[in-house]
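ok trying again, last paste got cut off:
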Amino acid sequence: MWPEKHNKLWVSHEKYFVDKLWENEIVHMLKYNPKIHHRRSIRLKEYDYRRAGAYFITICSWNNECLFGSISDGKIQLNEYGQIVNVEWLQTGVVRPNVKLDTFIVMPNQIHGIIILNEDARTIQPVVGATRRVAPTRRPNGPVSGSIGAIMGQYKSIVTKRLNKMRNTTGFNI
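nice, full thing came through this time. structure:
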C-alpha cells in the first residue's frame, strides 16, 4: 500500500484522467465520422443469447445524432426524446418476467445498460399465444424469440415509433 500522500496523488491523477477521458468522449460523440467509426458485430455465432446471464448493451442513435439530450456541467440533461428512451428502458424489465435491469445511462446519442436474464428464455412458457396447434411455418428471419437481440429489437421499435409520433414523422430511423 502506498503512503497516504501517494494515494491522494494517485486519486487526483485518476480523477484528472477520468475527467479528460469523459471530455474526450463528449468531443468524439459530436465528431462522428462514418468513414472511420464503423463497428462489426462481436456476437458469438454459436452462442444462444436466450441463456440466463448478464449482458452489457450499447445502442447508438442513427448516425450518432445527439437526439436524447445534452451535457451541462458534466451531467446529462435528457430532453423529451431522452425521457422516452429512459421510460421505455425501464419498461423493458416490467413487461418481461425473466428480465432484470441493472445500472444504465442514457447519453445524448446512446444508451448503455446491463440486462440480466434471470431464467433461460428457452424454458419460459408464454403467457399469451396460440391455444391450439397451428400449422408449422418457416422460421422467420431475425433474432430468436426471447433472446437479447429480440428484446433489444422490440425496445428499439417502440422507442422509434414513439419518437416518430412525437415528431409527426413516420419511418425515420432513431
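cool. The radius of gyration is 20 Å. Residues 4-30 form the longest helix (27 residues).
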